[in-house]
Amino acid sequence: MSETNQKELIYGLEERISPWAALLTAVQHVLASVVGIITPPLIIGSVLGLNAYLPYLISMSLLASGIGTFLQAKRVWGVGAGMISLQGTSFAFLGVILSGGFLVKSQGGSSEDVLAMIFGVNFVAAFIPLLVSRFFDSLRRVLTPLVTGTVIALIGISLIKVSITDWGGGHGVANFGSPANLGLGALTLLVIIALNRSRSRVLRLSAIVIGIAVGCTAAAVTGHLAIQPLPAQWFALPQPFRFGFHFSWAIFIPIALVSFISILEAVGDLTANCMISQQPIEGESFRKRLKGGIMADGVSCMVAAMFSSFPNTTFAQNNGVIQMTGVASRYVGMYIGVILLLLGLFPVVGGLLQQIPAPVLGGATLVMFGSVVAAGIRIMTQNPLGRREMLIIAISFGIGLGIEAVPEVLGQFPKIIGNIFGHAVTSGGIAAMVLNLLMPHDEPQIVKAGAATSAR
Question: Where are the transmembrane segments (predicted)?
């Protein structure tokens, strides 16, 4: 490893870090991800009419994310990547979960029946990543740097859309894109950039927290901090299978397909994490990290389903936080897990974090999500890109970004097809895998002796 690369990290993967610095860094990871963790249950609960259970669902999402994150960092008996791999509620399952919930409701099922079916099916689907991890070596031909780099870049591009939407004020707000919203996001972003370029380690470690604090203060002073009501329930203990356990093959099959596709997303995120944490992205140690990370994904999804939370996945935005702070110590991941677990036990704390204005979050996350895109490009280009590789990237990006931009193109297919393949990560990722398997490699060009002589 070069001296320049060594200086990019303040704390390496296995380096111990002081409790104060670890706590400060962990808080930045939590702030970067907490909205993403609680948004899927908010959407599912509101769409399926489960508002009475929303505080509990949000609380359990935070708790399950904490347990999964701790397991990823601790790496118990080979389960876990041994890195800061934050587990959060996956957006990829939203469509299939909503379709399954509507199916149960159409058959006369109650809200409790809907939740029992969703969590029962998700619990069984959690065995898929566990099985895939056992045969991961057979997938090496599929999950090449070209494929994983393409998926990482698509993930980052999709996240940037979320960031820009928050910067403008959030979905459906009347003043979307107003100068006040854009100004708050820009102020937050500028503070983070300025502090991140500081030579002070303390300022660099706290750049995101200070940036968000400055943005919230500016929002409060200018009257743009809208106080939302706090949850009525201040403390919640987890109850295994609180709503029961139901199962349906019709709902399981599409969720199982998304579970397999999510493994590709996890591999991409873990590969980017290895690169940012200055760990090998090839060889036996790398494969062990990927196996452990995928296994932890499966265990995390099982825990989530057991405690009434939706499927978890490895969050990409935290790779950006590692790059921003220069802290890759896995011990920070344990702090993150404990913080999220405590947030899950005290829903009122999550309610307080919801007070952060959307433009402030958008400004804070933009540079992180952009870093994910950059990491994907770095992985794609670690080997020379020939005509074959450029064609695979072009088609994968074209299909993935095109379908996500115009999801109506799948409108003539069954709705479940649109729910699964209407995202850049799924459609573009599958295209990259298929093309990489089927498209023949370029034959090496052989220079004729006579031509070589005349060229001299």
Answer: 20-44, 50-71, 83-104, 116-136, 143-164, 176-195, 207-227, 247-267, 332-353, 359-379, 391-410, 416-438
